[in-house]
Amino acid sequence: ACAAVLRWLVASGADVNFPDEQGCTVLDSGVWMSVPRPLLQTLIEHGAVARGANPHGDTLLHTAVKSAVNGGERGLVDQLIGMGGDCNIVNEAGHSPFMLALLAGASDLVSTLLAA
């Protein structure tokens, strides 16, 4: 049902890259909230920009790691790495996705990011 609503919104002219008041797009928010991967894929198929950074310098991979260490879906990290997510880009705080996983003690994510 959500995918159908999303397709309808896009067909009606909704801008999937329009930032909210904090400068985050629906894709940023979707990754943070661990929405189902098919919905994220639908956003990307309709032009959502999967590369770049939010106003804090966080890429989608930063956001996925932050979400995963807080109970979100860890599979998004793998998906974003598969899409070319860079594990070494640092945000405004000077942290890469790898460093965020390391600081959180998420050894499985550290291993995933090291292997990327």
Automatic annotation (TrEMBL):
PROSITE patterns: ANK_REPEAT (PS50088). Signal peptide: none annotated. ANK repeats lie at residues 56-92. InterPro entries: Ankyrin_rpt, Ankyrin_rpt-contain_sf. Keywords: ANK repeat. SUPFAM superfamilies: Ankyrin repeat. This is Uncharacterized protein. It comes from Chrysotila carterae.
